[in-house]
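Researcher: I'm comparing several assemblies side by side, and this is the next one on my list. It has 313 residues spread over two chains. Same procedure as the others: predict the full complex and return the structure.
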Amino acid sequence: MQKRHQQRFQQLQPHLAGAQVLAESYFRCQQRAADVLQDSLEAALTTEQFPSAEHCRAWLFQVVRNRCIDSLRKQRKLSNDDSFDFTSATAESTATEEGYSEVHQALAALPFEQRDILVLREFSDCSYAAIADILGVAEGTVMSRLHRARLALSKELQRRMGESQ
Amino acid sequence: MSDDTYDPNCEAIAPLISGALDNELTQQQHQQLHLHLAACAKCSKVYQELSALRGTLKADFTHRQQQQLVTESSGAQRVNLIAWWVLLICGLILAVAGVVSFWFGSDSPVWLKVVMSLVGFSLLALFLNVLKQRLQHAKSDPYTKVKL
């Protein structure tokens, strides 16, 4: 059993940094992201449906993403915010924006769907095929969605730069 | 980029700009984009802007990673370690001074001193026992070097 865990861990280890970045994009809190990643890793080491080596990265990111979304949903439920629409929500903890760069603040201001795909591509360095796997969409959709997200980010950055001048 | 209205041809080609930046295009798509960019100043501008945006994002990400490394650097860890040791030593000195003054400097009856000392030793034994278990667990934990 321990040998199996170690084998799986060796497969997952190169992707942990990318998964941490992905989790941080949801919470903007290193500690909380590390907690979710720890949970995901535990699940990954013990699950019966562990993927093959080439799908390992996309699978781990998918697990981390789902757990992050679950965690955020639970948090909203606890705070009795029934009107919360997850798909259009911007990153939480806007109060802690001071420590973040202009680019990160602009990214956080984007709708969830756009921020999600940008983080997967730009920071977690996923291929279109992997992103399609993680998000459960067609590869062609990834390209057009990503393009819209980039245009939106560029627009948001320009708006912020215009405001600050 | 300030103008959101594309003509139909631009609209169909536009996503390929992102595909080209990510190196995810087929040769045919590459050619299609290349021909379009040569003829369309607006899409060329979008291409340049998005290319610059990618550079900004990467630079920002690298900068953030470096900041995290500085925070987690060995210097910061050393300061933490020294602070813990100072706290531990001061705590021990205070505990010994407390026991000595309780036994030799207070007017409490002997039975109370004995009972209080037994309570203190029991708590210490429990603490040491838990500490021993934790240390044994840490030694045999295969994921102890996992860095998230």
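Model: For your comparison table: Chain B is about 80% helix and 0% strand.
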